[in-house]
Amino acid sequence: MNPLPSHPPGDGSTPNGAAGSTAAAAGNLPTFSPLYQQIKALITQSLQSGEWKPGELIPSEVELAARFKVSQGTVRKAIDELAAENLVMRRQGKGTFVSTHHEERAHFRFLRLMPDTGVPHHPDNRILDVRRQSAPAEVAQLLSLKSGDAVIYIKRLMSFDGAPTILEELWLPGAIFKGLTAERLDQYKGPMYGLFESEFGTRMIRASEKIRAVGADPAAAELLGVAEGTPLLCAERVSFTYGDKAVELRRGLYLTAHHHYQNDLS
Amino acid sequence: MNPLPSHPPGDGSTPNGAAGSTAAAAGNLPTFSPLYQQIKALITQSLQSGEWKPGELIPSEVELAARFKVSQGTVRKAIDELAAENLVMRRQGKGTFVSTHHEERAHFRFLRLMPDTGVPHHPDNRILDVRRQSAPAEVAQLLSLKSGDAVIYIKRLMSFDGAPTILEELWLPGAIFKGLTAERLDQYKGPMYGLFESEFGTRMIRASEKIRAVGADPAAAELLGVAEGTPLLCAERVSFTYGDKAVELRRGLYLTAHHHYQNDLS
DNA sequence: GAGTGGTCTAGACCACCCG
DNA sequence: GGGTGGTCTAGACCACTCG
Question: Please, what are the domains in chain A?
Answer without folding.
Answer: 1-99 (1.10.10.10), 112-261 (3.40.1410.10)
